[in-house]
Amino acid sequence: MASCMVFACYNVVFGIVVALGSFTGAEAQRAFFVFGDSLVDNGNNNYLATAARADSPPYGIDYPSGRPTGRFSNGYNIPDFISQELGAESTLPYLSPQLDGEKLLVGANFASAGIGILNDTGIQFINIIRIYRQLEYFEEYQQRVSALIGDEATERLVNGALILITLGGNDFVNNYYLVPFSQDPANTIYQIMSRTLSLSIRRF
Ligand SMILES: *[C@@H]1O[C@H](CO)[C@@H](O)[C@H](O)[C@H]1NC(C)=O
C-alpha cells in the first residue's frame, strides 16, 4: 500500500455504515455523508495547516488524474467506491470551495486524517477536524442546504442519506502509546454515535 504512513496504517479499524430511513428508489439521488479519519478523508486536510496530508506523490498515482488528491490512497478510497455504487459522483471534501449550490445535494465528506474517537488523539497533527467538529460542520451543512431547498426537503435528504463513519484506529496508533492519562475510547464511542444519529434525524 502506498498509503502506509503513521496516521494511515492501522491494525484496528472501527467502521460502520448506517442507513437511515427507508430508501424508496424514487428519489433523484441518495445523499452520502462521510465522517472519520484518513481511511476516508478525501482532501479536507489539504485545506488545513497540518502534517497529516496526502498532497504529494506517490499518493494519487493510480487516480484518473495521476496526481495527489488528498486521499490517503494510490487511487480511489472506500467512499469513492460507495459513491460509484450509489451511481453518484464522489462527495466533495466539506472544506472545498467547490462544495456549493447543487453539489451540496450529493452529500459531503467531513473526514480528516489523524483524528480519533478522542479529542486528544492526533494532537501532534495540531490542525485537524476532530469528530465533534465534523458534527458541527454537519449542522452547518444542513443550514446551508436548508437555505437552498427549504427545511422539509433538507430533512428528507438527510433522513434518506447513507452515512459512513470510520474512526478508531488512531486512538491506538496515535494516542494509546503517546498520550498519558487518555480517556477510554469505549466510553465515548456511544456518545459520538448517538449524537451523529440524533443530528441526522433532528427536526427543523
Ligand atoms: C471534545 O471537545 C468538545 C469541545 O470542547 C466537547 O464538546 C466534546 O465533548 C469532547 N469530546 C470528548 C470525547 O471528550
From TrEMBL:
Query: Which organism does this record belong to?
Result: Flemingia macrophylla
GO biological process: one example: lipid catabolic process
Signal peptide (residue range): 1-28
Question: Which family, according to the similarity comment?
Answer: Belongs to the 'GDSL' lipolytic enzyme family.
Question: Can you name this protein?
Answer: GDSL esterase/lipase
Q: Key word Hydrolase present in the record? A: yes
Under Pfam families, the record lists:
Lipase_GDSL
Q: Which UniProt keywords apply?
A: Hydrolase, Lipid degradation, Lipid metabolism, Signal
Q: Which InterPro entries match?
A: GDSL, GDSL_Est/Lipase, SGNH_hydro_sf
GO MF term (any one): hydrolase activity
